[in-house]
Amino acid sequence: MNIVVASGKGGTGKSMLASSLSLLFSKKVKVVACDCDVDAPNLGLWLGVTSYDVVKPISTSEKAEIDSEKCIGCGRCFENCSFGAIEKIDSNFIVNPLLCEGCGVCRMVCPVEAVKVKPVTNGEIRIKETKWGFPLVSGQLKPGETGSGRIVQELRKRANRIDHDVMILDAAAGIGCPVIASVTNCDYAVLVTEPTPSAFSDLGRILEIVNHFKVSYGVVVNKWDVNPSISEKIIKWSGERFLGRISYDREVVNSIVALRPVLVSKSKVKGEIISVYEKIRKLTT
User: Fold this and answer.
1) Where are the domains of the chain?
2) Number of CB atoms found within 10 A of residue 188's CB
3) Is residue 139 within 8 Å of residue 122, measured between CB atoms?
4) In the CATH scheme, what is the code of domain 61-120?
5) Between 3.30.70.1130, 3.40.50.300, 3.40.50.1100, 3.90.226.10, what CATH number should domain 2-59+124-284 receive?
6) Model confidence over 235-271: pLDDT tens digits?
7) What are 80-117's pLDDT values in tens digits?
8) By the 8 A CB rule, do 145 and 59 touch?
9) What number of other Cβ atoms are within 10 A of residue 161's Cβ?
10) pLDDT tens, residue by residue, 115-162
11) End-to-end CA distance of the chain, in Å?
12) Cα(203)–Cα(210) distance, integer angstroms
């Protein structure tokens, strides 16, 4: 069973809820937690993880290189690069690795085969056996590199090798490649929103992806009491898909500062999270 926690917007409480669901499910079944936000992973912070047992560099992208000895200075690579990654310095052409997307057009148009496209190490996969009794698999994209969606795919492959009954995936914010890679082939999606017009709008955007992949889903309204009127509007819109609401509590902030799960804090939201978990468990087992 693969359960993804997503929202379409950052800051709604995905990682807080994903860490809590991982703890709660782990009391009944074997769990593996996956932090699929490879640009800014923070699920480990909610679980008190500050170091990893396994750190493995991976390559999921390529970049071009120009052989200056073969280059005849025709400029075709410079003229055809859509990303502006080919720079001309004096009479020489070089590749700016921060702009290169590895598409290979420069190699195709080069008349003397002076361009090579080579794999680059653009990220890493990290694994940690948490003190809560289940492993965390996390990815990290290197600054300036591309291929976040492919790193998420690789991360999920590594997580699938670990014996588990339930995989909890903490998706990135937005609706881009890493989110699509997180939602694909999941059995259930927990969509977290907050009572603001932007969050409600982004909920509709992530729902388009969830529906495209025919993933069943439920909706959670976090910090509902910040704006009860919009919360009620979201709850009414959700209908039978509504899983529950979670209150705003400063103790939740204190939990992440202290690097501990909300469920082991004194927060008043613990009961609300458990109620959400019970509904999810009934719907997914």
Assistant:
1) 2-59+124-284, 61-120
2) 18
3) no
4) 3.30.70.20
5) 3.40.50.300
6) 999 999 999 999 999 999 999 999 999 999 999 999 9
7) 999 999 999 988 999 999 899 999 999 999 999 999 99
8) no
9) 9
10) 999 999 999 999 999 999 999 999 999 988 888 999 999 999 999 999
11) 9
12) 10
CA–CA distance from 54 to each of 58, 66, 127, 168 (Å)? 13, 35, 5, 19
| 71: number of Cβ within 10 Å | 18
In the DSSP assignment, the letter for residue 215 is -
Token pair listed for 221: 């309204």
Can you tell me which residue has the tokens 């080069």? 110
- Dist. CA 108–CA 180, nearest whole Å: 30
Question: What backbone phi and psi angles, to 5 degrees, belong to 152?
Answer: -60, -40
* Contact of 281 with 26, CB cutoff 8 Å: no
Contact 51, 42 (CB under 8 A): no
- Tell me how far CA of residue 83 lies from CA of 12, 91, 116, 120, in angstroms: 33, 20, 17, 18
